[in-house]
Design brief:
- This protein has two domains: 44 residues, no CATH class; 79 residues, Immunoglobulin-like (Sandwich).
- The chain is of the alpha+beta class.
- 20% of the residues lie in helices and 35% in strands.
- The strands form two sheets. Strands 1-2-5 form a three-stranded antiparallel β-sheet, with no helix packed on it. The protein has a three-stranded antiparallel β-sheet with strand order 4-3-6, with no helix packed on it.
- The protein is elongated and about 100 Å long.
- The longest helix is centred in the N-terminal third of the chain and has 26 residues.
């Protein structure tokens, strides 16, 4: 129950005796949470702004023949970076029929890549699994059915 008196009406001894000299704990907890949330948001934004800019988009693909597909994708990156991008083709049962890691050497910041992906059966889906800076891509590995040997890449006529 709050005091019927204001703090300025009481002597310093009474303020101390009856505990009116303390701030409410909820105010302190709220201030700590507010400051902690601000610091967390600041860290999140800083990390987001310092990530290396890398964007890869699958533009088009066509099943040119049962043994290969023509794939076009665009990569936006820093020009001095060497990238590894991974393409995957799957059949209707979602089993891999083609898989290829592709190395993109340093050069232009915007690169359009045309690639002929060899497949062991007609492709139903083609995916650009992702691109990473460096020699290996941090994406899921090939998922060919047991006993199936992945085809050599790239396809050549």
């Amino acid at each position: 129950m709050p005091s019927p008196f204001r703090r300025d009406q009481l002597s310093p001894e009474m303020i101390t005796r009856y505990g009116l000299d303390r701030r409410p704990k909820s105010t302190i907890i709220g201030a700590v949470l507010l400051i902690g949330g601000f610091v967390a948001a600041l860290i999140f934004v800083t990390i987001g702004l310092n990530r290396p800019p890398l964007n890869a988009t699958l533009v088009t693909w066509s099943d040119a023949a049962p043994d290969h597909v023509s794939v076009t994708f665009v990569v936006k990156r820093k020009g001095e970076d060497t990238l590894t991008c991974v393409l995957r083709a799957q059949d209707k049962s979602r089993a891999d029929v083609g898989y290829a890691p592709i190395t993109i050497e340093p050069g232009s910041a915007n690169v359009q890549v045309d690639y002929e992906l060899r497949t062991i059966a007609p492709a139903y889906i083609v995916e650009l699994l992702g691109c990473s800076i460096g020699p290996t891509a941090s994406v899921q590995g090939p998922q060919f059915p047991p006993g199936v040997v992945p085809p050599d890449q790239p396809w050549t006529p």
